[in-house]
Queue: 3 jobs
Job 1
Amino acid sequence: QAGLTQPPSVSKGLRQTATLTCTGTNSNLGTQGAAWLQQHQGHPPKLLSYTNNNRPSGISERFSASKSGNTASLTITGLQPEDEADYYCSAWDTSLRAWVFGGGTKLTVL
Amino acid sequence: QVQLVESGGSVVQPGRSLRLSCAASGFIFNNYIMHWVRQAPGKGLEWVALIWYDGTIIHYLDSVEGRFTISRDNSQNKFYLQMNSLRAEDTALYYCARENGAFDFWGQGTMVTVSS
């Protein structure tokens, strides 16, 4: 099943802003909301944002999401060492009738 | 608080079967769609299956359709993944997850290794 496309890695400096992208198709991101998850090594994923920019309780305002057409973005401001993690996007695909994930972006905070 | 606890992972030979369980607590279980998501060692997340609140709607990843069966028991606050005809490529950490707009709570995962 075709997934979403994310860059494998992004590196940014401490206190800088990182924008992670996720590209899909008309049958997923084009018509459905995007979710973003963060995963630290050895831990389960944690939901950061869903249906484009709804943040679960306890998620910092430094994380904000947006979507334009078939591309979703996650912007992380004021990067902190603890932001170093893998980030995944996800969406429901109406054609596949399946949830699809991106391959993940490894964010390095320099 | 919301808790999801997976169990049943093991080392099995190709072609054999395994049943995973996920015990839910801290929320009204039958109000939520539930999912299995897996992660092969060193790889990304891969959605496996979902089951609706009452079990009436079920969807699977193409590569597991016909081999895996998802089910739930709302009276026990549990759901399951019956995995038959296991293949080496099914080797992964299997997570159960709750859907609330997206996957908002996850268990710690249970490891399935398919190897001869």
Note: The interface with chain B takes residues 1, 33, 35, 37, 39, 44-47, 50-51, 54, 56, 86, 88, 90, 96-104 of chain A (CB under 8 Å).
Job 2
Amino acid sequence: GAGVSQSPSNKVTEKGKDVELRCDPISGHTALYWYRQSLGQGLEFLIYFQGNSAPDKSGLPSDRFSAERTGGSVSTLTIQRTQQEDSAVYLCASSLGLASPYNEQFFGPGTRLTVL
Amino acid sequence: DAKTTQPPSMDCAEGRAANLPCNHSTISGNEYVYWYRQIHSQGPQYIIHGLKNNETNEMASLIITEDRKSSTLILPHATLRDTAVYYCIVRVISGGSYIPTFGRGTSLIVHP
């Protein structure tokens, strides 16, 4: 079956513009996660969804970042007024659920964002 | 904060066993240890997880010490394609749910 897909694979934008990053999780996966990975760094957790709700938004770096998920499936991460420090690979993952500690995550290929 | 400590880099000869250590001294009784790896320019890939017993699958073996404060991922016969960053993670609780938190991992280089 299809894995997690993300689009676009690459995005180059100018400082100050808004960008939208999309994630299509594996069908039937109720949990969805967004991470950010800067060059040479580990994965920075941003936000997760259980269904359509995001119980914890504290991982979002600033109020320029927002995310939504509709219909319990596709999620969109929006970055407003992009800054150069937003340049990174944005990774999405999904899993069957969250409450259990043994639900493995399946990651998408990521979106490489470059802010000029 | 990541709850695990790993060496930043290791190397291994092709065909040999690669043993990747991880310290998780503050792990609590109901937290699982997970291992993922990330090959260059790809998303992380699940390898294995365990609670307190040793585990083995087609990719690797996981050895967890009796006190659960450390573990070792073993790739029994490393190949060049195993060159990747390996992440040992312990799920932390956020909003009542388990959220995998990644550190910087170990960069494993398998050489001919």
Note: Chain B has a mean pLDDT of 89.
Job 3
Amino acid sequence: DIQMTQSPSTLSASVGDRVTITCRASQSISSWLAWYQQKPGKAPKLLIYKASSLESGVPSRFSGSGSGTEFTLTISSLQPDDFATYYCQQYKSYSWTFGQGTKVEIK
Amino acid sequence: QVQLQESGPGLVKPSQTLSLTCTVSGGSISSGGYYWSWIRQHPGKGLEWIGYIYYSGSTHYNPSLKSRVTISVDTSKNQFSLKLSSVTAADTAVYYCAREVVNDAFDIWGQGTMVTVSS
């Protein structure tokens, strides 16, 4: 299986901050990467697919970049609704695998 | 819009079979272009893909669970189901059904259902 490693595991930030989360794959996955946001007690929500494509209805402050083995999710100006846990997921090679998550907390 | 809803027992005894159903509303499971998946999340942990089924019945499972997993589809009821046999406490998790765009991401998720394995 392809291993996905996110950093940091926890991030403390303030409203208005620019936030960047990194996801690394154990082997190249081209651009077959998605980002999800999950709030406590809720299902994950798709934010980004194919590494940089914004899902319909997702605010433009979210953006994704990268290819191969290194990817980033950026929130340009953190909003109160953005405090949550974020997961990356690869779909290049079975089995689909997720990163361990990055929790974005209020500073 | 398409919605997914999981249903099934919240408590399963060790060694028994966990059975869950996902009902799809607002769209047809037979429309093609999508895999219908199961994903689980152990308490306080990350996400684990279990497997998927296409409306035609073709499946793909996570090798770590393959010997115990069966996913089936009932197009007449617009449902797909998960069976996980010989469960242990390690199978205690929130189980999600999700729609996966073929060769792409999981774009729609059910709300999830907590399943506890305990005697």
Note: Chain B has a mean pLDDT of 96.
